[in-house]
């Protein structure tokens, strides 16, 4: 990245923080602007997807989504919804990384292109878990959390062990 762009970004970030500290700027939008600047830096870091700095995109997407969540939470009463919505927003950040960057990398294997979908699924699954605990506080929720969830973990663990044996990997070394 060109030093003039980095200097401009630092001036803007410093100005935002200064205005926020002086009370002239609503602080909840600071993260959105900082995330947007990181996304701009990602776009300017190379002339193609293959040359761009993926770290800037990941940081920009996460900071932007956390900032959007903070702005929504500050301006609208979310109540019990705040817990699971936070993880949905984080999942959207990784989905954005997939849509903007890794899916275009045709020279990589499918697994290396789809890696952002794994944290997306995990974060959305955890948001479902938080939703069940916070909002659906019922007998069905208790049964699912007490029995089905641990059984699901056991099934996934067994599947992973079977796949490891099929590939010839030793589990305990």
Strand content: under 5%
SS class: mainly alpha
Mean pLDDT: 83
Largest sheet: none
Pattern of helices and strands: HHHHHHH
Number of domains: 2
By DSSP, the count of extended strands is 0
Distance between the termini: 44 Å
- Low-pLDDT residue intervals, each spanning 5 or more residues: none
Number of helical segments with 4 or more residues: 7
Helix content: over 70%
Shape: flat
**Cα radius of gyration in angstroms:** 21 Å
Task: Jot down its keywords.
173 residues; mainly alpha; 2 domains; 7 helices; 72% helix
Summarize the structure.
The chain has 173 residues and is an all-alpha fold. Helix content is 72%, strand content 0%.
Structural description of this entry:
This protein is an all-alpha fold. The chain has two domains: about 5-135, no CATH class; about 140-173. The chain is about 70% helix and about 0% strand. It has seven helices and no strands. It has helices at about 5-20, 30-45, 55-75, 80-100, 110-115, 115-135, 140-165. The model has no long low-confidence stretch (mean pLDDT about 85).
Strands, helices and their partners?
Layout: H1 3-21, H2 30-44, H3 54-75, H4 82-100, H5 110-113, H6 117-134, H7 139-166
């Amino acid at each position: 990245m060109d030093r003039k762009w980095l200097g401009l970004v630092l001036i803007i970030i410093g100005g935002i923080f200064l205005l926020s500290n002086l009370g002239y700027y609503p602080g909840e939008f600071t993260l959105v602007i900082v995330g947007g600047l990181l996304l701009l830096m990602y776009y300017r870091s190379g002339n193609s997807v293959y040359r761009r700095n993926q770290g800037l995109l990941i940081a920009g997407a996460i900071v932007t989504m956390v900032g959007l969540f903070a702005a929504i939470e500050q301006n609208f009463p979310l109540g019990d919804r705040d817990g699971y919505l936070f993880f949905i927003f984080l999942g959207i950040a990784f989905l954005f990384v997939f849509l903007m960057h890794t899916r275009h990398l045709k020279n990589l294997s499918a697994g290396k292109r789809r890696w952002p979908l794994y944290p997306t699924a995990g974060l959305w699954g955890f948001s479902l878990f938080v939703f069940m605990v916070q909002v659906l506080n019922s007998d069905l929720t208790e049964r699912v959390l007490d029995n089905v969830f641990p059984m699901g973990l056991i099934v996934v663990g067994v599947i992973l062990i079977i796949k490891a044996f099929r590939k010839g990997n030793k589990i305990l070394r």
